[in-house]
Design goal:
three-stranded antiparallel β-sheet; 54% helix; alpha+beta
Length: 102
């Protein structure tokens, strides 16, 4: 499914951010996630989970939010949370591959 203004590859700019078409892997990774606490990682997890709960086929991030996704996925060790975020980044890269390698 494409959204208004969306490229055929599934990703589009949203203002100063990005939109990523959610695949089954992303949806499953966040489906049963229980988030406790109030830190940065927890807030990001809650935001992603809330977006997925709407049933939208896309995740929408401002540029700053997506920077946080990348930072948490790469700078804080190698845990389950980081792997979830890495899947989101890989999905974004796959959807934008042609424009990234020009």
């Amino acid at each position: 499914m494409t959204h208004k203004g969306q490229d055929t590859n599934g990703s589009r700019a949203v203002g100063a951010g990005v939109t990523i078409v959610v695949n089954d892997a992303i949806r499953k990774m966040f489906a049963d996630l229980v988030v406790n606490g109030k830190g940065g990682q927890q807030n990001l997890s809650k935001a992603i989970t809330a977006q997925l709960a709407t049933g939208d086929t896309c995740l929408h991030f401002t540029a700053e939010e997506f920077r946080r996704v990348v930072r948490y996925a790469t700078a804080y060790g190698d845990g389950t949370f980081q792997r979830r975020l890495q899947v989101i980044i890989v999905q974004w890269a796959a959807q934008n591959f042609d424009s990234l390698v020009k």
